[in-house]
C-alpha cells in the first residue's frame, strides 16, 4: 500500500489524527504523522526530512519553506482558521468589553498568559492588544508559555487571571471560561496553511485534497476550527 | 576489669570463649587467622557477637540477651589497627588530633608534644598518610589512639613494621603508660618478647578459641599449649623478689625461696615480686661449683628428668622450682649425667630478662 | 550577527538569570542530594525502592511532566503552593525562585546518584577507626564519610549546575517564560528558535551558554584538583 | 480512563520503542563513556578541557539545540549524514536509530561523569601491583581498573538508560515524532498533551513510563548488589 | 646481577646511592622511613628515579641519560608489598593466579598446589581479601608473587604479620627457592635473624642512603653502622668451616684457625665455610678451663679491652678473632680481670646460630 508522511503543527494534532485515520480507512493509504512545533518541522523539512505534506500553524513557517523552495508552491492552500479568545479560570469570570474604552489592564490583577511573541498565538495576542490600546500596559505582565497548551494550563490552575488562547483550546477545557472572542480584524487572520513538500510522493496529493473535503471540514469544525470556504 | 564471654560467627569462622582481663596488660598470642583481630573488634564494638556479653569495669558494653550493644564511640576503648587505617584526607597532625581535640583537657592523658617526641614523627606533621612509609604509618596510628586517651587500649601488632631501635624506644613508653597512667591494655603480637616486656600475663588463642589465659608460666605449661613455649625459646620463668640493687657493679639481686640470683641492674623497687625468664639454651650444668668464671649464678639442684628431643637433651632440674636446660648429647655423655644427680645450674646474669612486675 | 560582541540587555538578563538560577539550584540540591545519596548508599530501610524511584522520576519522564506536576503541587491552587503562599507569602509560579525549584527537581537525581556512588566507595573501615576514636555517627559522617565522598559531591554539584543551565521543559511548564524573571538562557534560545531566520541571535545565546558552561567546568576542575590534593592523591 | 488495563496498540508501540531506544542508547554509550571517563580521570593530554567541554555540552544546552545540531550534522544534507547514507545506506533522521543517537548524545555526559568519578577513586597501588605481576596496560585496565570502577559504570548505565527514557527535546528535533518509528513514550505523552482534554491517555503513558523506570531501577539494584559482592563488600 | 646507581626525589625525601647485588639473597635493613620500600619500587619500575641507572643481569631496566624506563610488566621483577595490595574484587584463588595464568608452562616455577600447601591457604581459596586476617593476606600476597615466577624477587617485610610457627615454615621454603630455583632476592626485614637465615649479605640504609653493603660481618663492623650490631644483639660473627658431624650426640664441629667449636647439629656439607653468630651476653669468661660442666666450648684468649658501657662491662677478647663478651661489673671485680689477662671464653653450643653459608 502507499504510504505518505504528514508533518503537522502540534496544535492540529487531534484533527489531523482523525482525518488521517479516516483517509487511511477510506483510501487504503497509510498516513504517518509527525506532530511537533511548526518551527521544528520546518527546520526538519529544510534539512531534507522525508515529509510529503506540511501543515503549519501559521503562515510564517510556510513562507520560510516557500522562500527556500522546499514546498510545491502551487499546492499551498489555507485549510482552516481559528479565533482568538480571552479566557479566565472557571468561576473567576468578569465582564469584559473588547473596546478601547474598557480598561482591561485595570480589570484584573497579576499576570496574564499567552505565548512568547515568537510563536503565532503570541503575535496575534500582541496585535489584538495593541489594536485595543492595552499592549503597553500589559506587556510587562505577560507570562508567556511555550505553547498554547501550557498557556491554557496556567489559566486552568488559576496562575493567571486571564489568558489569550485559540478558541479550539478554550472549547475543550472545562476549567476555563471564555470572556470574549477577539474581533477578527484586531489581528491578522489565524490560518493553517498546508502544502506538498518538494519531492512528495504522488499519493500525497490525494491527501492534500482530502484535507479540503467536506469530511475533513466536518472534523475541523468539530474541534472548533473555522472552516475556510 | 574486662570480662567477656561470647560467640561471634563470621562466615566459616567462629570466635568463641570466655576471657577475663584483670591485669594491667594482657598479651594476646596465637597463630595467624586465629581470631585475634576479630576479638579486638568485638571488644571495641565494631563487630557484634551473636551471643554473650562484654563487661568493662563493671559496665556492660554488650549483652546479647538484654539487647545491649554500646556503640564504639561510647566505649572509650582505643584500637590500634593492624593496618593503621589512617584517614587519607587528613594530615598526620589532624589524624593525631582526631580523637584528642574533642576531649576536655582533664580527660587528656598525653600532650601532642609528648607523643610526637616519643614516636619521632614531628617532621611528618604536615604529610598525608599516602606519603608515609609503612613504619611511619604504624607510629602515627599508635599516636592517634594514645592521644584519644581511651580507658582500655587494644593494640593489634602495633610494632610489627618497626625496626628494633624504634621498638626499644616505644616499648618502655608503653610500660610507663601501663604503670603511670594505669591504662590497661590488650596487646596482640607475634613477638613474645614484646609481650613479656609488658606483661607476664598471656591469653593464647587458636582457631577462634581462647585456649588458656593467666600468668605466662602457667599458661605455657598447660599441655595443649606446650609447643608454644618451646617455639618461643622461653622455657624458664621464675617469680622472684627484688632484694638488693648495686648500681656501681650494675647488679640487681633477687631471691626466690632461699636462693639468690644476680641479674642486670633494674629499676624495680626493693621487695617487688617480679617475673624473670630464661631460655633453656642459656642454662649450663656443672658437677661442681665453678670458680674463677664470670657466670654469677650457680644454683644447686637435682636432675629430675633427662629427655632426648631431636638432636639435643632437655634436662629438668629442680632448684626449688623446675628449670629446663637444653644441652648437647655430647655434654651429657662427657659428664655422665643421670637422673637424680646433683648438679649446679649456671646462668649468666645478662641471659635473664625481666618480664615485669608480678 | 557578530556586529557587536557587546551583549544586548536581553542577553545579559538571560545570562544573569541562568547564573543565578544555576547557583541557587546547585545550593538547593546540595543538602538533600548529599543526604539522600548517603542514605541510599548506606542505610537499609523499608520503602527504599520507592524513595529511589521517586528521586529518579524527573530523569525518566519528559521534562514537561515534572514541570506540570510542580504546577499542580506548587501552583496557587496546589496543596503545597497554597500553604507556602498563606504561611510565608511565597509564590513560585512565574518567579525565578520557581525556576530554581524546577531545575533543582530535575538535577536532584544526578546529584543523588553521584553522591551515592562516591559514598559506596568510601572504605567503611575508616569510619570504624573514627568511631573507636570517640566520634559519634554525626561526627564520623561530617569528618570522614563526607570528605572522602567529596569527589562525588563535587561531581554531583557540577552535574546539577550543568543540568540547571540546560533545563528547559520543566522550567517553562512550571514558571513560564517571563522576560527578566524566568527567561533563562534556554528559554531565550527557545524563543528565538520559534522565529524563522532568527538563527543568528539564537546562536549567540548558545555560545553564551557554552562559555558559561566552560567557565563552570573549569572552576570545577580547579575544585576537583583541590579535592584530590585534599584526599592526598 | 482506566476502562482497560490492557495497553492500546499505540501505548504498546511507544513502550516497546522506548525500551528499544533505551537499551540501544545504553549499549551505544557504554564503550565511549567508559573510555572517555577513564581518559578524563587518568590521562593528561592537551585539549582535555575541550573534550571535557564538548562532552558536557548536551547537558548545559536546552535539548532542542543539540537536537538541531544533530539534524544539521547527521541530516541527509549534513556532512556526516550524507556520508553515512552514501557509504552505508544509513539514514538516521526519522528512524529509531536516530532516536538512539539523540538520546545517546544526551546521556553521554552522565555516563562519562559517573565513570570518571569511579575511576578516580580506584586505588592506583592496585594497578601497580598488577603491573609487577606482569600485566601490561591493557590487561591492568581490563582486569583491575574497570572491575574496580564497576559501580561507576553501572551508575552511568542506569543514568544513561533513565535519561534516554525521559529524552524529549533532542529526539523530537532530530528525528521528529513519527508514530511507530520515533514516537517514544515522552513523545507520545507530548502528543497527548497537545490534544485538549487528553489528560487521561497522557497520564496512562506517564504511569507506564514510571513503571518501566522502576523496573529498570530494580534491575540495576540487583546488578549493583552483585557488583558490591564482586568487590568483596 | 643487579646493579644500580640512582637518585630519586619524592617530596622532602631523597633516595640515593649505588647498590650492587651479586649474591643469591641480599638483606635490606634500615630504620623505619629510610627508603627501603621506595628502593624496591624503583627497581620494580613503579617509581622513576630522576637520574641514574638500573641494570639486571646486564639488561638495562632504567637509564635516565638514555631515557630508558622499562615498564614494570616487562621487567619480570616480583614485588611483595608491605601492605599486601591484594585485588579486592578477586577471590584468593584469582589473586594467586593473576600473574601465573599468563605464563607458559615452561616459565612457571611453582605449581598452585605447592604454594597452597606451603602457605597453608588452601581453605581460603574462595574468600575475598576483605575477609582475610592480616597474616592470611600477607601469605596470599607472597604466594601471588611467587606464582608469577619473576626473575628477581623483592620482598618487603613479607613475614612481619606472621607468627613464629609460620615463619619457621616459610623461611626454609624461601631458602629452597634460593638454592633450587636460584631465584635472587632482595629481602627487607626488621628481623635480622630472618635475613641472616637467608643470607649473610646485607645492605644497610639510613635516611635514603645506602650506608654499606657486603657480608654481614664487614658491614656491621663499619664504624658508622656499629650501633646496628649492638641493637641486634649480634656482636660476634665468625666465619668457620664445617669439619665433623656427629648426629648421635647432636653435634656439628666447626673450626677456624686452629680452634674447634662444638655447635648444634647442622646439615651443612663438610668443608663448607659458614657464618655463625653469638650474642655478647652469651659469652662467659673463666680464669681456667672448667671441667665437669655442660659448656662445650672453652677457647683461650687474651683480654684486649675492658670497657664500661652503662651498667655493664664489654670485654674484647682475642681468640684468633676478636670476640665481645658482655659481663657484669661484679664479675670483673670478683675475678679481678684486667687487660692483657689470659682467660677462657665459654660458649654454650646452643647459643650459637648459623647465619648461612659464606
Ligand atoms: N609519596 C611520597 N611523598 C613524599 N615522601 C614520601 C612519599 N612516600 C614515602 N615518602 C617518604 O620517603 C621516605 C622513605 O619511605 P619508604 O616507604 O621507602 O620507607 P621504608 O624504608 O620502607 O620505611 P618502613 O620500614 O617504615 O616501611 C619516608 O621518609 C617517607 O616519609
Ligand atoms: N569478614 C569476614 N568474613 C569471613 N571470615 C573472616 C572475615 N574476617 C576475618 N575472617 C576470618 O576470621 C578468622 C580470624 O580473623 P582475624 O583477623 O581475627 O585473625 P587474626 O588472629 O587477627 O590473624 P592475623 O594474626 O593473621 O592478623 C580468619 O580465619 C579469617 O579468615
Ligand atoms: O527535553 Mo526538553 O522538554 O526540550 O527540556
Ligand atoms: Mg589480625
Ligand atoms: Mg616500607
Name of the top-level CATH class of chain C: Mainly Alpha
Question: Count the helices of chain B. How many?
Answer: 10
Alpha-carbon distance between the two ends of chain B: 17 Å
Q: Into how many domains do the coordinates of chain B divide?
A: 2
Number of distinct beta strands of chain C:
0
CATH superfamily of chain C, by name, is MetI-like
Keywords (chains C, D): Cell inner membrane, Cell membrane, Membrane, Molybdenum, Transmembrane, Transmembrane helix, Transport
Function (chains C, D): Part of the binding-protein-dependent transport system for molybdenum; probably responsible for the translocation of the substrate across the membrane.
Main location (chains C, D): membrane
Transmembrane segments (chains C, D): 21-41, 53-74, 94-119, 140-162, 202-219
Summary, kept brief:
The complex is a heteropentamer, with 1 copy of chain A (229 residues), 2 copies of chain B (358 residues) and 2 copies of chain C (233 residues). Chain A has 229 residues and is α/β, with parallel strands linked by helices.
Give an overview in words.
The complex is a heteropentamer, with 1 copy of chain A (229 residues), 2 copies of chain B (358 residues) and 2 copies of chain C (233 residues). Chain A contains 10 helices and 11 strands. Chain A is of the alpha/beta class and 229 residues long. In chain A, the strands form 2 sheets. Chain A has a 6-stranded mixed β-sheet. Chain A has a 5-stranded mixed β-sheet with strand order 7-6-8-5-9, with helices on both faces. Chain A starts with a strand and ends with a strand. With 358 residues, chain B is an alpha+beta fold. Chain B has 2 domains: 2-233, Rossmann fold; 236-357, OB fold (Dihydrolipoamide Acetyltransferase, E2P), CATH 2.40.50. Chain B has helices at 36-44, 72-75, 92-100, 112-119, 134-147, 164-180, 192-198, 216-221, 226-232, 329-335; strands at 2-10, 13-21, 25-29, 51-56, 59-63, 68-69, 77-80, 152-156, 185-188, 201-206, 209-215, 236-246, 251-256, 259-264, 273-278, 283-286, 297-309, 312-318, 322-328, 342-347, 353-357. In chain B, strands 7-8-9-3-10-11 form a 6-stranded mixed β-sheet, sandwiched between helices. A 5-stranded antiparallel β-sheet of chain B has the order 2-1-4-5-6, with helices on one face. In chain B, helix 3 (92-100) packs parallel to helix 5 and helix 4 (112-119) runs antiparallel to helix 5. The longest helix of chain B has 17 residues, at 164-180. Chain B is globular. The two termini of chain B are 17 Å apart. Chain C is mainly α. Chain C has helices spanning 9-42, 48-60, 64-74, 79-88, 96-120, 124-132, 137-148, 150-166, 169-175, 185-193, 199-230. Classes of the chains: A alpha/beta (229), B alpha+beta (358), C mainly alpha (233). Chains in contact: A-C, A-D, B-C, B-E, C-D, D-E. The interface between B and E is large, with 78 and 78 residues. Bound molecules: adenosine-5'-triphosphate (2 copies), molybdate ion and magnesium ion (2 copies). One adenosine-5'-triphosphate sits between chains E (10-11, 13, 30, 32-38, 82) and B (131-136, 161). One adenosine-5'-triphosphate sits between chains B (10-11, 13, 30, 32-38, 82) and E (131-136, 161).
Amino acid at each position: 500500500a502507499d504510504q505518505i508522511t504528514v508533518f503537522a503543527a502540534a496544535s492540529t494534532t487531534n484533527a489531523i489524527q482523525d482525518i488521517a485515520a479516516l483517509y487511511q480507512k477510506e483510501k487504503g493509504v497509510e498516513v504517518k504523522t509527525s506532530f511537533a512545533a511548526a518551527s521544528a518541522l520546518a527546520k526538519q523539512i529544510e534539512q531534507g526530512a522525508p515529509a510529503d505534506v506540511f501543515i503549519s500553524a501559521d503562515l510564517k513557517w510556510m513562507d520560510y519553506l516557500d522562500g527556500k523552495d522546499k514546498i510545491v508552491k502551487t499546492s499551498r492552500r489555507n485549510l482552516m482558521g481559528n479565533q482568538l479568545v480571552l479566557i479566565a479560570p472557571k468561576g473567576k469570570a468578569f465582564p469584559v468589553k473588547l473596546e478601547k474604552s474598557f480598561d482591561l489592564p485595570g480589570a484584573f490583577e497579576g499576570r496574564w498568559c499567552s505565548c512568547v511573541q515568537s510563536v503565532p498565538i503570541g503575535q496575534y495576542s500582541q496585535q489584538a492588544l495593541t489594536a485595543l490600546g492595552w499592549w503597553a500596559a500589559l506587556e510587562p505582565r505577560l507570562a508567556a508559555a511555550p505553547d498554547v497548551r501550557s498557556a491554557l494550563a496556567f489559566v486552568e490552575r488559576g496562575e493567571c487571571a486571564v489568558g489569550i488562547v485559540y478558541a479550539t483550546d478554550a472549547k475543550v477545557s472545562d476549567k476555563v471560561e471564555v470572556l470574549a472572542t477577539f474581533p477578527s480584524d484586531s489581528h491578522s487572520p489565524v490560518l493553517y496553511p498546508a502544502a506538498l513538500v518538494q519531492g512528495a510522493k504522488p499519493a500525497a496529493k490525494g491527501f492534500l485534497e482530502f484535507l479540503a473535503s467536506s469530511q475533513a471540514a466536518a472534523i475541523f469544525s468539530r474541534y472548533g476550527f473555522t472552516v475556510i470556504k | 576489669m574486662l570480662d567477656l564471654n561470647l560467640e561471634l560467627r563470621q562466615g566459616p569462622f567462629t570466635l568463641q570463649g570466655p576471657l577475663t582481663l584483670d591485669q594491667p596488660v594482657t598479651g594476646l598470642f596465637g597463630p595467624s587467622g586465629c581470631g585475634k583481630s576479630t576479638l579486638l573488634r568485638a571488644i571495641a564494638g565494631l563487630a557484634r557477637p551473636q551471643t554473650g556479653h562484654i563487661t568493662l569495669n563493671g559496665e556492660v558494653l554488650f549483652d546479647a540477651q538484654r539487647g545491649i550493644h554500646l556503640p564504639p564511640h561510647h566505649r572509650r576503648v582505643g584500637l590500634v589497627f593492624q593496618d593503621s587505617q589512617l584517614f587519607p584526607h587528613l594530615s598526620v597532625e589532624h589524624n593525631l588530633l582526631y580523637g584528642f581535640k574533642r576531649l576536655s583537657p582533664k580527660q587528656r592523658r598525653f600532650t601532642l608534644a609528648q607523643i610526637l617526641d616519643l614516636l619521632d614523627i614531628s617532621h611528618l606533621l604536615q604529610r598525608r598518610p599516602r606519603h608515609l612509609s609503612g613504619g611511619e604509618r604504624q607510629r602515627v596510628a599508635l599516636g592517634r589512639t594514645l592521644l584519644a586517651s581511651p580507658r582500655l587500649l587494644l593494640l593489634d601488632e602495633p610494632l610489627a613494621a618497626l625496626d628494633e631501635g624504634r621498638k626499644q624506644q616505644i616499648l618502655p613508653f608503653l610500660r610507663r603508660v601501663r604503670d603511670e597512667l594505669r591504662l590497661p591494655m590488650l596487646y596482640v603480637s607475634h613477638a613474645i618478647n614484646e609481650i613479656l616486656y609488658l606483661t607476664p600475663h598471656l591469653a593464647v588463642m587458636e582457631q577462634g578459641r581462647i585456649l588458656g589465659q593467666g600468668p605466662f608460666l602457667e599458661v605455657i605449661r598447660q599441655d595443649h599449649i606446650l609447643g608454644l613455649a618451646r617455639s618461643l625459646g622461653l622455657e624458664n620463668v621464675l617469680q622472684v623478689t627484688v632484694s638488693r640493687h648495686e648500681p656501681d657493679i650494675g647488679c640487681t639481686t633477687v631471691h626466690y625461696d632461699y636462693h639468690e640470683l644476680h641479674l642486670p641492674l633494674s629499676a624495680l623497687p626493693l621487695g617487688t615480686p617480679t617475673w624473670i625468664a630464661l631460655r633453656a639454651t642459656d642454662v649450663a650444668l656443672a658437677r661442681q661449683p665453678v670458680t674463677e668464671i664470670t657466670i654469677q649464678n650457680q644454683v644447686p639442684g637435682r636432675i629430675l628428668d633427662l629427655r632426648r628431643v631431636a638432636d639435643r637433651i632437655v634436662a629438668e632440674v629442680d632448684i626449688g622450682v623446675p628449670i629446663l636446660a637444653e644441652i648437647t648429647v655430647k655434654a651429657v655423655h662427657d659428664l655422665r649425667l643421670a637422673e637424680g644427680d646433683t648438679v649446679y645450674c649456671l646462668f649468666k646474669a645478662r641471659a635473664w630478662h625481666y618480664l615485669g612486675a608480678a | 550577527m557578530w556586529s557587536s560582541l557587546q551583549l544586548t540587555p536581553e542577553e545579559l538578563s538571560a545570562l544573569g538569570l541562568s547564573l543565578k538560577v544555576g547557583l541557587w539550584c546547585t545550593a538547593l540540591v546540595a543538602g538533600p542530594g548529599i543526604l539522600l545519596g548517603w542514605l541510599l548508599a548506606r542505610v537499609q530501610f523499608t520503602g527504599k525502592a520507592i524513595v529511589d524511584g521517586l528521586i529518579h522520576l524527573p530523569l525518566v519522564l519528559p521534562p514537561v511532566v515534572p514541570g506540570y506536576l510542580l504546577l499542580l503541587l506548587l501552583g496557587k491552587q496546589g496543596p503545597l503552593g497554597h500553604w507556602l503562599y498563606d504561611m510565608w507569602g511565597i509564590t513560585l509560579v512565574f518567579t525565578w525562585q520557581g525556576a530554581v525549584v524546577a531545575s533543582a527537581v530535575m538535577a536532584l537525581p544526578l546529584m543523588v546518584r553521584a553522591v551515592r556512588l562516591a559514598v559506596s566507595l568510601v572504605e567503611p573501615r575508616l569510619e570504624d577507626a573514627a568511631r573507636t576514636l570517640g566520634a559519634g555517627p554525626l561526627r564520623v559522617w561530617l569528618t570522614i564519610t563526607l570528605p572522602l565522598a567529596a569527589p562525588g559531591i563535587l561531581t554531583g554539584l557540577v552535574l546539577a549546575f550543568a543540568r540547571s543551565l540546560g533545563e528547559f521543559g520543566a522550567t517553562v511548564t512550571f514558571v513560564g517564560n517571563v522576560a527578566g524573571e524566568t527567561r533563562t538562557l534556554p528559554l531565550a534560545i527557545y524563543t528565538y528558535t520559534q522565529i524563522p531566520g532568527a538563527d543568528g541571535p539564537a546562536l549567540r545565546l548558545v555560545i553564551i551558554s557554552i562559555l558559561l558552561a566552560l567557565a563552570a567546568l573549569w572552576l570545577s576542575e580547579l575544585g576537583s584538583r583541590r579535592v584530590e590534593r585534599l584526599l592526598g592523591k
